[in-house]
Design a protein that fits this description.
The chain contains nine helices and six strands; from the N terminus they run βαβββββαααααααα. The protein has 236 residues and is of the alpha+beta class. Helix 6 packs antiparallel against helix 7. The longest helix is centred in the middle third of the chain and has 32 residues. It binds protoporphyrin IX containing FE (2 copies).
């Protein structure tokens, strides 16, 4: 039976009319005939051409659905763990959730705090209630702190699960994350130096407000491109 290396398997992804293969527990199956794997994408989430053993844990069905399809080969085993630094290899083997989950678990914090900075600033401008402006400032501080957590876990998951490959979403995420960090620090220092920058609204306040609005836009784009890697949009 044919033995597939991971990069060989990746070619059987259903793109450009290629056959659609998936690997499960070391066996490679041909699911080209399945309507549910059209163009190599299953449930708008799982991509053919990969080892999907771990992904099946989240599925509403068992492995018997895979066994409906012919086995066409076996997947060549690569001992990935051995190439990892010892503490990371140990921890990811002992606690498998540490491999993929830290980034999705932590990115909600910078997202919500950056959004809240914009929302509470606008609420202040619409209502004149000063505590909204103070809340916006506090959220900004939290957004800056949690952005570092997002960056750390992002670089970790990119290195661990994507071999630090310069994929398009990452090419956009990294510089934009840094721009968002610099922008948020500028706003924070500005607000400390001039606490009434929004309260006594003047010419420069418009620039301050534009920067505050830009946080929500940037965090949306960063999140969107991140999610495009975990939840690919189906192409027609
Ligand atoms: C969030 C994860 C998933 C969801 C929501 C999902 C959902 C479904 C549903 C609703 C079906 C039809 C059920 C049936 O025919 O009995 C199906 C079939 C199937 N699924 Fe999944 N699935 C998921 C993950 C996976 C993964 C990770 C694999 C591969 C390891 C997989 C392989 C298959 C196969 C081979 C079929 C049979 C397709 C056919 O008969 O045409 N699924 N899936
Ligand atoms: C520069 C540092 C960053 C890098 C290298 C990076 C890289 C990645 C990678 C590789 C993924 C895919 C994860 C997977 O497939 O499991 C991802 C997902 C994601 N990233 Fe980042 N990221 C970074 C910073 C951030 C920041 C600061 C945010 C938010 C403020 C963010 C939001 C997201 C979101 C929402 C997802 C999707 C998570 C999911 O679908 O569950 N990322 N990122």
């Amino acid at each position: 039976m044919k033995e597939f290396k991971a990069d060989e398997l990746a070619e059987y992804n259903g793109e450009n009319g290629n056959p659609i293969y998936i690997a499960y527990h070391g066996k490679v199956y041909d699911v080209s005939e399945s309507k549910l794997w059209r163009k190599g994408l299953h449930m708008k989430r799982h991509r053919a051409g990969h080892d999907l053993t771990n992904d099946l844990q989240a599925a509403p069905h068992e492995e018997d659905v895979i066994q409906r399809y012919p086995q066409v080969g076996i997947l060549k085993k690569v001992d990935d763990e051995r190439q990892l630094p010892q503490p990371i290899a140990f921890l990811t083997a002992r606690f498998p959730f540490l491999r993929r989950h830290p980034h999705p678990m932590t990115v909600h914090f910078p997202i919500v705090f950056m959004f809240s900075t914009t929302v509470f600033s606008l609420l202040y401008l619409f209502t004149g209630e000063k505590s909204f402006e103070t809340t916006a400032f506090h959220c900004l501080g939290a957004g800056i702190l949690f952005n570092f957590v997002g960056i750390t876990t992002g670089i970790y998951t990119w290195w661990l699960n994507y071999m630090a490959k310069m994929l398009r979403p990452v090419k956009i995420k990294i510089p934009l994350t840094l721009v968002m960090l610099v922008t948020s620090v500028i706003i924070f220092i500005w607000r400390i130096s001039v606490p009434d920058i929004l309260i006594n609204f003047r010419g420069l306040s418009v620039l301050y407000l534009v920067l505050v609005l830009s946080l929500s836009i940037m965090v949306t784009i960063i999140g969107w491109f991140g999610a495009s890697m975990t939840f690919p949009v189906e192409k027609d």
